[in-house]
Amino acid sequence: GGGPRPVSGEFIALIHAWESDMIVRGLAAATREAYGRVARGYLTFLEFRGTFALDDVDGGSVLAFLESLTDRWARSSLFWVVSNFRPFLKFTRRPDLVEAAGLAGVRRSHGILPVLSDDDQQRVVDVCVSGLVSARDAAITLLALTTGLRACDIIGLRLAEIDWRGQTLGIIQHKTRNPLTLPLPALVTAKLADYVLHQRPHSGDDHVFLRSKAPHIRLADHASIYRVTAETFRRAGVTDVKVGTRLLRHSAASRLLHAD
Q1: pTM of the full structure
Q2: CA dihedral over 50, 55, 58, 62, signed as positive or negative
């Protein structure tokens, strides 16, 4: 990954061990890069201050490192730096360094999350039922709308992960590597079945959602899901919101909370 790298032997070995541990744990490449960048930044910060061994650092160095970032990061954004920093500090088996990160007092800024109105959600559901969009696009939109799945998990969904009789799906989340089992509402199950049985191209690729044009392989990236949901919303006449799985994820979470 990019960014500065430590030069002392002990720190180089520590970074290599940390990067290997993240791979063994199955962390996504983007997560490994985010965690690695802040770890490398901390170690090069220590070297700049004349420290080249972990035994010679204390909690004050963690606070000083975070303070040094305030001229490049908004304080409200430092929450993400600390979140990415803490796993590395735990890896060093230095609880005093972990505690120091907590003492930094960095708090997440909770903005008001946008959600779909009841009327807009119903219009989207109606267009998915109507047949005005393909079964694939309806299933993708309804999955995001009702379960809150991330785009990466919709893209990565495989046929064997759907329990048709139990009307559930079970996955290992791409971002967190945590297992997740979700109930599938009847409408979602019906649209998934319609797509798999009648519209899904014949392919050796076992991902559920495939490209409609050859080569019939899984969808490429988040942009593919965005295009699907944006077109579904357009056909539903819902054009005054910024469509994407982030909005649909927030809406699903809000509705689950309201429903206790």
Answers
A1: 0.63
A2: positive
